[in-house]
Amino acid sequence: MIKKFKLYILLVAVAFSTVSCLDKMPDDSIPFDESIRTVDDVNLAVIGIYDTFKSSALYSGNLTLLPDLQTDFVYGVNGNTNTYGDIWRWKDILATNTSIEAVYAALYNVINRCNFLLDRVDRVRRNTTDDDDLDQIDQCCGETYFARALAYSELVKLFCKAYESDEDAANQLGVILTKHYLGDEEMRRASLKDSYQFILEDLDRAAELLALDKNYNPSTDGALFNSAIYFNEYTVYALRARVALYMRKWDEAIKYSSKVIDSDYFLLSSCTKNISSGVSYYKYMWTNDLATEVIFKVGFTVNSYGGALGQIFFNYDYSTFRPDYVPAAWVINSYDNNDLRVSTFFQTYTTGYSHGLSWALLIKYFGNETFYDTKILHVSMPKVLRLSEQYLIRAEAYVQQAQPDYGRAGKDITALRTARYSTYGGSTSLTASNAMDVIEAERVKELYMEGFRLHDLKRWHKGFERKPQDQSLANGSSLKVEADDPLFVWPIPQHELDAPGSQIQPNESNK
């Protein structure tokens, strides 16, 4: 069977944390040389790593919301609280922005925790003789390498330019790479090429250590596997496919997305088959955070959870809705009439503002019903890796490779639409003239407000334009951003640049 996934992951995390790549263990934490001495200590350290992903600066908040909020997906509403207003207005994004600082610090917090464990685990391994304990150490290390790769993949996505080629990336700024918690590693940005290579090396290590046992039976063990709150061999493949897409390594993207798609472990959630009366399997993924297509989600309980993704879209006070942001009309209008994602994602309400705006609000993040029942509003478990993204990755790679395969790409879009439409007959016809338009539009409709838009526009070298819609804020609603604008790459936080001894080079957006 699978190397045992840890139930103890939901316990209280160990008490060491950091706030940035330059600030590490606080004075009241466990001394470095006295920590991570037993297999149980290793387990506790991994609990801490998983726990860091609950941060509202990451997938349950800033990391998911800000990249889409910054673009053309939503509009600020007259009278709103100005939450994330500087991000939405685009031109007001500064190196001192606290929301961006929080993302940067939280990602390096994950990395520092990973390095802390990896620096100490060999001593535990040398003192361990039990085979099951040794397997558990390998499992923990695999999860740790994956967590570090995931954090670095987000850093390069947000704080670096798009990867164009190996030659170009060798001359572009990447991120600070650290392998050790303590040491004299230079606090200087590596090249973008070396940064991606670091991620790939971690994913290779993770794949080896997290490989499923050949005797694993999805029919009997699938319920445990599809809890989807732990890293495993297929989370590695899914992230590897995403990274390959971002690196324009089309053959690799096809290879790794196919490993996920062609496995027996995941299935696209249907919009037409119901899990209960009036609730489709796809809708249940958003209302209850359970689905056969989720590859990895950040696990929450009513006693341990992160941020509230839906807060800015509702601000519900049990009486009225006063959303800070509402969906862009062009997004809502982009769905076909028989596309059931519309009714899953959006529902029209009259807001509680004095202007009485009536608009389709983003019910996708209204919140987990179990949490809602305990008076916790707008909290959903972030779905970091989903099967639908893998279909979109593979379709794009098929049409971008040296010898485009429009037929196979069309089959992937057809598979996705069949799961999402009330009816979808025939096949999707893709050609050289329409393939990318179709795929780009499908990414908008499937991955709306999941944190992909900013990087998609950056790597496609496309700008965007906002035009005012009903009751949208004057400052920000009329905006035209050209392709390759410097703010497609977030500024490095100013406190990192100003830190004593820092050799960190700024981005163009810092200037």
UniProtKB/TrEMBL annotation:
Pfam families (UniProt xref): SusD-like_3, SusD_RagB
Residue ranges of domain SusD-like N-terminal in the record: 36-215
Top-level division of the source organism's lineage: Bacteria
SUPFAM superfamilies: TPR-like (SSF48452)
Endpoints of the signal sequence: 1-21
Keywords: Cell outer membrane, Membrane, Signal
Cellular compartments annotated: Cell outer membrane
Domain RagB/SusD: 374-499
GO cellular component: cell outer membrane
Entry coiled-coil feature ranges: none
Bilayer-crossing regions: none
Family: Belongs to the SusD family.
Protein name: SusD family
Organism: Bacteroides faecis
